[in-house]
Specification:
- The protein is 31% helix and 17% strand.
- With 379 residues, the chain is an alpha/beta fold.
- The protein has one domain: Rossmann fold, CATH 3.40.50.1820.
- The strands form 3 sheets. A 9-stranded mixed β-sheet has the order 1-2-4-3-7-8-9-10-13, sandwiched between helices. A two-stranded antiparallel sheet has the order 5-6.
- Helix 5 links the parallel strand 7 and strand 8.
- Helix 5 packs parallel to helix 8.
Length: 379
């Protein structure tokens, strides 16, 4: 199905018209000699989305010799049941879905706002080069598998967990354009936050001469006993990634290993709201409950978050943390809070208790670690 055919299937006329306008304004494909501060689409050969369509994403060559790797979010397939149920633009009402299966449409726009924005001159990163790695694989950007499933309700299918292949193709193309950056920020939101913890080591090996690297995980943690098995058997992530997954907290495992491997060569930072609505929903599913928003899921998530932050601060004393309590705009149960910040329209303006997020991040990158909002862990 082509992108235009997908647009025509959207049932809501207003949304359909809006998407048509976005599609018409999509960036052009990457030329041989790209202009600076211009977004382009790159279509790596042989890369596919989870439903088999061609994969693509966007990148921008900046005027500063600094590189941001932005890993996008969009759910996860933890098992065969969730792999068989991707999100769709025209999803059936009441059906539970788990992850974004395609770069179609969002691949032109997602991830280039917030701290990756080139629009606002007050953005400290507006002149950085940026490679956005769209998420269309259900595997936290680390899979290499054609995963076959046979679902009782939906029948047989294949989920192409090719996140690692897609990520490497995008970053390797960016390396051709920016071969020796003086600074690198590896960051991602939601599934891309998990990807940040999993792949910062890989980015550092691709750019071995860069001694100034920051890893910023945005809104990524929940407890799941099967991380290693899912990564190894379903996603078929590289062995060096699977070997890091030794507990029920994937992000904590990876950040501790990152610090152990690289020491002071990488600055580690973590941000999240203290009762993240979408992560509490994932926690419910991991706990064998319905994938819903409720107080119990929020409570369990908050406990997992507390364990991560306290362990990280003990094992990595210079780790930076920014926790905040922004209420969720739509979810009104369980005192649940917003999900992700770095790619939002308010990322450059938001402040918690007088601590502006963007200032905190700039301090982290400059080697001035700090912790904000720790009192929320006990609220």
């Amino acid at each position: 199905m082509t992108e235009l055919e997908m647009i025509e299937q959207i049932p809501d006329e207003k949304i359909r018209d809006f998407i048509r306008l976005l599609y018409a304004a999509r960036p052009q494909d990457l030329p041989e000699k790209p202009e600076k501060n211009t977004w382009y689409v790159y279509r790596p050969e042989g890369c596919v989305c989870s439903e088999g369509s061609p994969y693509y994403s966007i990148l921008k060559l900046g005027t500063a010799n600094k590189l941001m790797v932005m890993l996008c979010g969009g759910g996860v397939a933890l098992d065969a049941y969730s792999a068989a149920r991707p999100n769709k633009i025209a999803a059936e009402e009441g059906k539970v879905t788990f992850y974004n299966p395609s770069a179609a449409l969002i691949g032109y726009f997602y991830g280039k706002s917030g701290i990756a924005s080139a629009e606002r001159e007050d953005n400290p990163f507006h002149d950085w080069s940026v490679v956005v790695v769209q998420y269309a694989s259900g595997d936290f950007h680390c899979g290499t598998n054609d995963f076959a499933y046979d679902d009782e309700e939906l029948g047989k299918g294949v989920c192409y967990h090719h996140g690692y292949t897609n990520y490497r193709a995008m970053v390797e193309k960016m390396k051709e354009l920016v071969p020796a950056p003086e600074k690198i920020l590896v960051t991602g939101f939601s599934a891309g936050g998990f990807g940040t913890s999993l792949l910062t080591d890989d980015v550092m090996r691709l750019f071995p001469d860069c001694g100034d690297v920051t890893a910023l995980v945005d809104s990524a943690t929940f407890s799941f006993s099967g991380w290693h098995e899912t990564a190894e058997k379903q996603w078929k992530a590289p062995k060096e990634i699977c070997d890091r997954l030794v507990s029920d907290d994937l992000v904590l495992d990876c950040l501790l290993d990152l610090h152990k491997t690289w020491g002071d060569r990488v600055k580690i930072a973590f941000t999240c709201t203290y009762r993240d609505a979408l992560l509490s929903q994932c926690q419910n599913y991991s706990d064998g409950k319905e994938m819903i928003f409720d107080k119990e899921g929020g409570d369990h998530f908050q406990a997992v978050l507390k364990h991560l932050v306290e362990t990280l601060r003990t094992e990595v004393p210079d780790a930076s943390v920014y926790l905040f309590d922004k209420p969720h705009n739509e979810v009104k149960v369980g005192n649940l809070t917003e999900h992700t910040i770095i790619a939002t329209d308010w990322a450059l303006d938001y402040s918690y208790e007088g601590h502006k997020f963007i200032d905190w991040l700039c301090n982290v990158i400059s080697g001035r670690p700090s912790q904000v909002g720790l009192e929320l862990l006990n609220r």
